[in-house]
# Entry
Amino acid sequence: MKYMCLIYGAEAKHPQAGTPEMGQLMENYMAFTGEARENNVMVAGDPLEPVATATTVRLRGGKVEITDGPFAETKEQLGGYYILDCKDLDEAIAYAARIPTAAFGSIEVRPIMVFD
# Structure
């Protein structure tokens, strides 16, 4: 079954580019991604640009409304995702716990709906 792991963290608390902390975080992500690929559970995964680049689109009364920024004010922002093909939720949770941002943010694990 495929699971989406949504990676949330507070951008203000995220390591800054060019710092040793960011270097270590990127090494940890590369290791996790390599492990997921080697174990044939990695389907896809990408980081997202900062939340300031987001555009929210709504259709209200037949009109398109566009708002800069995320849908709602939150303390943590969606920073990226993995789609993992795991045997069950327990395996997906075990992988999610190894995503580096889990140490200071949160990982939402959701099954991907399959239409027959």
Notes: The two ends are 14 Å apart (CA to CA). The chain has one domain: 2-111. The longest helix spans residues 20-38. The mean pLDDT is 91.
